[in-house]
Amino acid sequence: MHLLTVTITTFVAANIISLSLGTAIGWLSPFLPLLISSDSPLDAGPVTDIQATWIASLLCIGAFGGTFLFGWSAEKFGRKTSLLATAVPLICFWGCVAFGTTVEVLYVARLLAGLGAAGVFLLVPMYITEIAEDRIRGTLGSLFILFLNIGTLVSFVMGSYLSYHMTAYILFALPIVFLALFLQFPETPQYLIRRNRVRDAESSLKYLRGYTSTPDHLEMLRSEMDGLLVQVSGEKDSTEQSSISLADFAPPSARKALLIGLVLVSLNQLSGCFALINYTAQIFADSGSDLDPNMAAIVVGAIQIIGSYGSTIIVDRCQRKHVYIVTSFFAAIGLFAMGTHGYLKSQHVDVSAINWIPVASLSFVIFIASVGLLPLTFVILSEILPPKVRGLGGSLCTAFLWTISFLVVKYFPVMVELIGLHGCMWVFCAVCLSAGLFNAIFIPETRGRSIEQIIHAMENNIKS
């Protein structure tokens, strides 16, 4: 029990920063309506609609740059040091929110939040993967999104019951607590071995597993260290044979995997779920729902957590393709229902009897997307990219995801003006249907298959 407890404790400490990032992401929903109102806390008064879209979308620009910065840092300075560094932009974000009095300071704050987001999304799964035992690695890895969503809900709740500045003062402490707690935990054994620090790697592994000096524990330590040495030695040999280049994308399986990855991350963002989470309170206010917008956002946040937990349960128990296709289809139904309610309202039809539809539909969409459509994008992406190009290919896909995310979040309010909220919901509905169709036609099943089997399926267009 002690051995497992040490790993769980390390996992929880690492994910305090995930919780902190979730609060930074969730901050926008309860406070954007305040910023554009006459009660705005800024010296210049309410922000304009254009300024509001920049506040919402600049997080994605920061994340685009952060993807490459923290990718480089993880290899240069190590997983632990780089993960500790992600706390800095998040501390600065809350500092800007707490003490900033102009919209320009909020622009900087959101860029910093994006920088931290890129680091957390990259480094927390990387650190957890490299410290966890095989038997619990999948579960611990999938719980990362759960911590993120809990943080989002915390922001929704605090934003509903506390003031603008009080929320920032309190949440300012989270990344500081992470720094204080995580400093005591070690670098990952794999990284230390890659840097030829074998003795340090052994000490790290001994701490992480809670091994003592008993003969049984020493034997287990030697056995695991031997396995890591062989694994890292194989990686070094592969790297020395040829460094990564564009030629490595020449094989059909690599080209197809990269193209599928780019399409998957595009569909992930064009489904509208990230935009809906950013503008949750505003959407409910505009939809005419009878429920208080901030309370509705809290309901959606809680539903998202339930969906994320559901994903951790089924991700290794059901076929990836089936879960992705089914959740895409049902998300489309929820978006269509919300769009239809909005259309009837815009045509001055009395919808007072069905004003529960916006909350119910959006809650259903976020729940079902959190079960499959959203998390499986990243699971499938990590499984279909061949090992040689996985690092570069993953970075390219992640950077492209943040680019699409910026465009969706920035121009969502513009599209609402042009085609109405109902039109946007119908567009998102069409994208979800397209996502399910794309998966059914082009993506092979990956659950329970080796890398070689997945590459073979890609090359031979095997879908089942």
UniProtKB/TrEMBL annotation:
The chain crosses the membrane at residues 52-71, 83-101, 107-128, 140-162, 168-185, 257-277, 297-315, 322-344, 356-380, 392-412, 418-443. GO terms for cellular component: plasma membrane. GO terms for molecular function: sugar transmembrane transporter activity. It is a multi-pass membrane protein. The keyword Secreted does not apply. Keywords: Cell membrane, Membrane, Sugar transport, Transmembrane, Transmembrane helix, Transport. This is Major facilitator superfamily (MFS) profile domain-containing protein. Residues 6-447 form the Major facilitator superfamily (MFS) profile domain. InterPro entries: MFS_dom, MFS_ERD6/Tret1-like, MFS_sugar_transport-like, MFS_trans_sf, MFS_Trehalose_Transporter.
